[in-house]
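User: quick one, fold this
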Amino acid sequence: MAGHSKWANIKHTKALKDGARAALFAKISRQLRMAIQEGNSADPAINSLLRTEIDRALKQNMPSVSIQNTLNKFKTSKVKLQKYRLDIRYNRNVYFICILYTDNFPGVKMDATPMIKKAGGEFMDVGHLFDGFGLIQARFDTTKLPKATNLEDKATNDAIELGADEIEVIDNTEGEVNFLCSPIVLPSLSTNLAKVGYSIENSKHIFSPLNLVRLASDDQKAYEVFIEKLRNIPGLEDIYDNVE
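Assistant:
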């Protein structure tokens, strides 16, 4: 189950899009807000989703005072964030899927439209040009592995039993392993992996391009400028595209 070529495109996509997040703390704050919303509490003692997000925020060096300010700001908020998607074609052969979390999608889209059109982009359904997957990044305490069992064997068996399509061991020493699955089973698989001893570091619906394109030097520079403009859209969480 491990080592399938799908991982190459997924790794490319995530490394490219997550490598330079200018608004990292804004993104973390959204994740904290979503955890409060989904867990129905701003108390990490009773909201495991929030506790996980706080741990992740600390690992990414977000100051404790900023985390607490975020919790205080949203613990009584009645306005809920929702997930939205923008599909964009840019300069004929570059395609984007942008994932946003916002409480005002019509306003965000209206404000972003002039910038997108001026740069040579247009809204267009591009979903058929990508494969959608559920990606779960998990960790297992390897000191709890049965004798004569390694992490890959354990993860492969769990994947078969619980409904994951593929696995990839990232770090044997740290027990880091990724599970790939259908987006439909992503929530239940995350829950079931946690039940059998995995710590879920992250889980999300991601998009991998069916075909990659290579841009000429000038087009690459224009593309990079456009990417930075997209990153400034309020509530932007992830960008997926088909550029090498």
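User: anything notable?
Assistant: The longest strand covers residues 199-209.
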